[in-house]
Amino acid sequence: AALPRTCALIDATDNDAGGEKLRTQVQAVAEGRALLRHAPPIGKDWNDTLKQVERDYIKTLDVRRERRLER
User: How far apart are the C-alpha atoms of 33 and 38, rounded to whole Å?
Assistant: First the structure.
């Protein structure tokens, strides 16, 4: 089924040359639909972001465990 002209597309490609190339290709076939950019906030690709979020989460678990042991 075709996407309605009123829908927006979300571009969640990597924040590097490859991601920009893909964004250009998607824009070319988007037929005038809005293309919203959602770049990874950390690093150049989404895996960098996921790894950092995981490290930060693990640190919170360590702090919680230490607090529990202090009681």
Answer: 16
